[in-house]
Recover the amino acids of this structure.
């Protein structure tokens, strides 16, 4: 198996880190869900749902690509933040420049994990249909997708929280927190319901 | 980013599937935890815990390699099971041969996800120390590792359940179920505690 991503993750470089892992975990869930579509499409027993299954597969493929790109976007958003934390603040002018750089970098570093949360929530919203209508042979794979999408959603939320806590603009911080809360609550409830339904049927 | 594993997972081939994803998710958690060790080792502020941090890193590296190998082992254990399900059972002789092949294959297909559960539980058992003593800059990464190890443990448990439910040897089935239950309960409790502690500190 190719272990390049895991090797990079394990290294002493701070990126990819938890944010990149969150995006990767969401992509893992989308990939598993895509496999379930593939194992259902073309089977006589599931012919009735084939058009919807094709549409779900198309959306899940797009979501996987988006989450793969978010692994890289998370690393790109971290660099300016890390640079800003290292800026000097010996003089009032330096301190102002540092704070301005920090606040600009924090905005991006918060918005990327928020985008990861949104993509994970959209992956989760495909899973109820797959659990009900997908091939019974792949039922546990739907359950595993729900578990990983749930973990990825929570992991991305942790990354939103760290950065929001340093934001000076309180209105913006509150707006980010509300958005993250809403995505977390709705997404987790659906993902956990899917995982529970799968466990009952196994 | 290298997407080879995700591409294979998303394909119409049944392996890698949920079992392989569980092993990969456990390796992802071990990799994140290893990064936390790397970001702590060599820093003056954490010099006191450096010897233990080095030992944790060594164990986590071994666990990651083990979980990477279990991705492949899961796929290898699936092939004979899939072959057995396809055997004919038109005559009593064929039916007996099919049942024997199936039962032999189910044993391996259950023991691999049980090994994944054991490795995930051992990853989880490293995280409390990292949450308390690891670099504060990597605290959210410990939380993300806990979330993914928890999801991987549950995903592997789903794969134990499917196979156990078809085992004819009831004593063996019960023994597997008890082992999985114990690993699941203890591992989940610790992982959730770590994730909660991280959220409180963020």
């Amino acid at each position: 198996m190719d272990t390049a991503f895991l090797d990079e993750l394990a290294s002493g470089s701070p990126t990819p880190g938890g944010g990149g892992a969150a995006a990767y975990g969401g992509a893992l869930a989308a990939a598993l869900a895509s496999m379930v579509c593939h194992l259902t499409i073309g089977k006589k027993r599931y012919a009735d749902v084939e058009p919807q299954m094709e549409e779900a597969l198309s959306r899940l493929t797009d979501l996987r690509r988006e989450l793969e790109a978010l692994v890289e976007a998370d690393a790109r958003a971290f660099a300016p933040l890390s640079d800003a934390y290292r800026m000097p603040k010996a003089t009032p002018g330096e301190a102002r420049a540092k704070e301005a750089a920090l606040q600009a970098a924090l905005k991006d570093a918060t918005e990327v994990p928020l985008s990861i949360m949104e993509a994970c929530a959209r992956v989760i919203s495909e899973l109820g249909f797959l659990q009900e209508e997908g091939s019974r042979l792949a039922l546990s794979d739907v359950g595993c997708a729900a578990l990983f999408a749930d973990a990825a959603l929570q992991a991305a939320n942790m990354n939103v929280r760290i950065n929001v806590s340093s934001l000076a603009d309180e209105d913006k911080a509150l707006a980010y927190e509300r958005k993250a809360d809403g995505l977390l609550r709705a997404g987790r409830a659906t993902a956990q319901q899917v995982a529970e339904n799968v466990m009952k049927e196994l």
User: Anything to note?
Assistant: The longest helix of chain A spans residues 92-133. The two ends of chain A are 29 Å apart (CA to CA). Residues 121 and 186 of chain A are 8 Å apart (CA to CA). Chain A has a mean pLDDT of 97.
